[in-house]
Amino acid sequence: MYRLVLITCVLSAPLVAAGIPSAVSQDQIYFARDKVLPALVHIQPVIQNYNTGELEKKAVVGSGVVFHSDGYVVTNYHVAGRADRIICTLPNKEIVDAKLVGGDPPTDIAVIKLDLKDHKDSIPVAEFGDSDSIQVGQFVLAMGSPLALSRSVSGGIISTRDRYFSPDVRLPSGERTGEFNLWIQTDAAINPGNSGGPLVDLSGRVIGINSRATFLANNLGYAIPINIVKEVVHAIMSDGKVTRSWIGVHCQALSELEDYFGMARDAGVLVSSIDPGSPAEAAALQAGDVILSVDGTPVSARFVEEVPAFYNLIARHRPGSVMRFSIQRGDRRLTLKVTTKELGELQGEDFECRDWGCTVKAITRQMQLENQLSDTSGVFVVGVKRASAAEDGGLRPGDVVDLINGTPIAGLGQFVETYNGFANSKVKRFLLTTKRGGSTRFVFLKVDRNESEATVE
Amino acid sequence: MTPPVAALLCMISVLPSLAAAQEFDFAQLERQARTFTVIIDMKLEMSFGIQTADHQERFLGTIVTEDGLVLFNGALLGENMGAMAAPFTVKTTPTRISVTTLDGHKYEAGYIGVDRFTQIGFIRIIGAENERFTPVQFRKERHFRAGEWVALYMLLPEFVSPPFAADIGMVSSVIESPEYFPLTVGFSPIQMTSVLFDEDLEPIGVLGALANPSRGSDAGGMLESFDQSAIPLLGVIVGERLEGLIAAPPVKGQPDRGWLGITLQALTEDMAEFWGLPVSEGIIVNDLVANSPAEQAGLKVADIIYQVNDQPVQVDKEEELPIFQRFIAEFGPDASIDLSILRRNAGVFDTLTLTAQLSKAPLAAAEAPTYDVAQLEFKVRELVFADLLFFKLAPNAIKGVVVSELKSGGLAELGGLELGDIIQRIGNTAVASTEEVRAAFESLAVEHPAEIVFFVWRSNQTLFVNVKTDWQ
Hints:
Chain A has about 450 residues and is of the alpha+beta class.
């Protein structure tokens, strides 16, 4: 009851608290509502979680909005990106299935397609607006299924247009998110279940996709700006994924360091760190270099809020592009050419080893860098199930499996093949050669298959 | 209260009423104990990284040499106190120590160090060069048996007078493995390092805890700590053991432990069977530190060490690894040891013997030299071997010093330095030791800049941190 009261209160509060000027009329709110609410989708995906050492399925609730008459819906990656089944409820309360079209963890965006074969009427579509022309103080509506309460609308204003969050915040599936975008902050009530729902302006256009909130706070909700969403959706619709360039450079705001580096204001982007083995390292870019221009266009990141746009500038290039960086290094000006590589997946594909009681995933280059691994060979242990052969043998999350009974494991494909080969044989003893924190370690697994099958069934 | 604790307390209350306890002449015991017992008052500076606090602690001390060497319970000062993560150690530094004998003489004392295995601490009385103290004489080569009675004198809290009380317990078992240890019942951890007497009123050792092999008493942070919450098994640290410690007390900051330079795991019975080995116990070499004694001896990754100086390595569980580490540590630096190993070669295991010349164990984080950057309200310490393991860094991958203390709300914290940052450059000066940090700040103190830019390594990335000074 307490939660219900809260939501009721919040719905009316911004109107009073924000002191809506007479220019915002009730009719405008109804207009915006009627443009988008019919395209709002209540999403119930069954998401897969491998973190506990076994494949766990969990039904969750999120929101989405239809943007294409063929039934395409945009939502958050953390809602539908890892779903194996998606059930949607349309505003007319009809229930339909949906399938994942593609997802993009760095921006936390996913596209799903509704199965409309039994749906006779055409489906209403919401229109995307322009998030570059929004203003702080502008009245907005948030629509979705807070705490699974479908077809809910809340109202408020844009609190800030350029909220920055460190990409160290990860999605439940492990990916860093937010490297390429800022957030629109709003005081329209956003609760769990609002994820993936639209943030709407009074002209009835979607200006953001609600995706985060600060809990135990008053009305701090965050939406991904629609202009970023449009790019991502376009890439997913045409390729099923977003392809980005990567050069392995990390940047830092210059504002407190301009004197130290002898730079004028709003001139340059400071390189703070270079990934080992990256294109930036190959091009001899160094920490402390200040990038003045890229392909002749001046760049700057005086404040942290400007850094995602610079990363996006690099990411937008086609992998394999040659980028020309004009840099300041001490007293010298240099031009360095960097050939980009594809960023690739942040996290690898998961696999459940039922007999062993653990889950593993393919190692991507980004995982290699984050975990200080020497290469991407082997498979990465995601989770170890309690009281399993893997736990008894001493396997731990973060270990990298390099060999199974002497068979080298180049990647997940070979791991699955080897694992399944043993699963169909009488072999019950496995000696895994693993890497933990750079050291080789042997893990011995004793699998009692009969017992394990009895437990599973 | 957990059931085992309740049971222990229960035993304590029951035991003194038993008839055998009456056979102790406690008056005589007290007279004897008074000759070598002292009260130690110690002022300690405890640093928790962002906070430093002063403490006053009182310990029971026992004079063990004529020239004033005193042992006490050093658990509070142990270097691996709470050191789960290498850069974030709790560091306890004695700043003033006084020793009071029971006939009322008061002396100053200097801190020496704590034995990492027994947690016995040592201090030395200073300014009494002409005096001859009466030390305790521990009986050696004594045969212990279960069921015999032992007694001690314990220190009571300061508000109680007189400050001592007798207690009695019983040898309950004579442990043979992982080490010789007469186990007792009837005593409690607050009585640690009290001198124990037998029924003949002979000092036979001090009360100590059996080093739990699952506790990470490792050499240089080679091993993660296992469960540390177990209730200690109390018993007698025997005379022979104490004699060794008294002859060469451990000195803080000067590790005298032997070191091989490997990361290791236990050879389990299952693995031995899987490989068809002739032994079922031993150590598997997981990794070798570059230029370490192990590497120089020719050890290789995956070698199995099954004997050291022809003694079998009795380790077949991960929890027993510290037994091996301690075994190596206690050879001391520069010792030459023969390692019998099995090495896999084309599916067959060859047997070979390698000789390793041990070296001095690397410093633990809490032993590393520090420098107080008082102007910016933080402290740095030298990068130690354990840091490399913790941060997963190759030796020499990074040179720098570690931010080990940071005053909350201080200039360094305001500027954005964080605990555990590895400072590589101060301004444009590369720093790799506390001495270089001192030199850098001495010249900065002349220049008085309004801000100082640090280049640091943090979470596998580098970045610049600008700290504003209050010089201008």
